[in-house]
Amino acid sequence: QVHLVGSGGGLVQAGGSLRLSCAASGSIRSVIAMGWYRQTPGKQRELVAAIINSGGTNYADSVKGRFTITRDNAKNTVWLQMNSLKPEDTAVYHCNARIWDMNMLLNDYWGQGTQVTVSS
Q1: How far is residue 36's CA from residue 14's CA, in Å, rounded to a whole number?
Q2: Which three-class secondary structure state does DSSP give residue 74?
Q3: What phi, psi does 87 have (nearest 5°)?
Q4: pLDDT tens, 12-42?
Q5: 3 state DSSP class of 40
Q6: Which residue of 38, 48, 62, 72 is 20 to 30 Å from 6, comparing CA positions?
Q7: How confident is the model at residue 64 (pLDDT cuts 50, 70, 90)?
Q8: Nearest to 28 by CA among 107, 96, 95, 94
Q9: 13 CB neighbour count, 10 Å cutoff
């Protein structure tokens, strides 16, 4: 089994910062990519930021220049530093990882979600 545990959400005023973390553990052979998605009621889950093994990153246009994703491959951990937060960043943030497990199966795994609330 593979587990993702995310943390770091909370309530912050507009302009503030939060740092999310997510760690993958369990029957892991290789983590291909890790990232964060977010979802608000009535809307589809959207990609916020992702990072692959080589360090390449991808960001939603709405967060470029404000959010930074980093990763420790040895620890299968990813962090999302969120600066200059805006009320529209309010959402439940879900950690995602694409993982080859020990049975050589490639799957997407999701963390439990963490609430980020930005007050105006």
Answers
A1: 20
A2: helix
A3: -55, -30
A4: 999 999 999 999 999 999 999 999 999 999 9
A5: coil
A6: 62
A7: very high
A8: 107
A9: 10
Average per-residue pLDDT in the chain?
Answer: 96
Residue 62 to residue 17: CA distance in whole angstroms: 16
> Can you tell me the distance from the alpha carbon of 60 to that of 46, in angstroms, rounded to the nearest whole number?
8
> Within 13 Å of residue 59, how many CA atoms lie on the same side as its CB?
14
- 84: tokens are 């200059």
User: Based on the number of CB atoms within 10 Å of its own CB, is 50 exposed (0-12), middle (13-18) or buried (19 or more)?
Assistant: buried
Identity at 48, one-letter amino acid code: V
- CA separation, residue 77 to residues 41, 53, 62 (Å): 28, 11, 24
pLDDT digit string (tens) for 91-114?
999 999 999 999 989 999 999 999
